[in-house]
Amino acid sequence: MLQDLIVAAINDAQRKVDDEVSGKMGGMMGGLKIPGLTG
Questions:
Q1: Max Cα–Cα distance, the chain, nearest Å
Q2: What are phi and psi of 34, to 5 degrees?
Q3: Phi, psi dihedrals of residue 32, rounded to the nearest 5°
Q4: Which residues of 3-38 are buried (b: 16+ CB within 10 A; e: fewer)?
Q5: ∠ Cα 4 10 16 (to 5°)
Q6: Which pTM value belongs to this model?
Q7: What is the tens place of the pLDDT at every residue in 5-28?
Q8: Residue ranges of the alpha helices (H) in 1-39?
C-alpha cells in the first residue's frame, strides 16, 4: 500500500514537470513546428 502511494506521487510529480517543461518550451519556441522536439 505504501509502495502504491509512493509510485503515484512520483508519477504525479513527473506529469507536473512534463507539463511545466512543455509550457516553457512552447513559450520559448514561439509556435515553431519542429518534429520530435516536444512530445
A1: 44
A2: -115, 110
A3: -65, 140
A4: eeeeeeeeeeeeeeeeeeeeeeeeeeeeeeeeeeee
A5: 135
A6: 0.59
A7: 999 999 999 999 999 988 887 777
A8: 2-29
C-alpha cell at 26: 512552447
Place of cell 522536439: 37
Distance, CA of 28 to CA of 38 (rounded, Å): 12
* Gyration radius of the chain over CA positions: 14
Residues 6+ apart with CB under 8 A from 18: 39
| Sign of the four-CA dihedral 7, 9, 13, 16 | positive
Read off φ and ψ for residue 13, nearest 5 degrees.
-65, -40
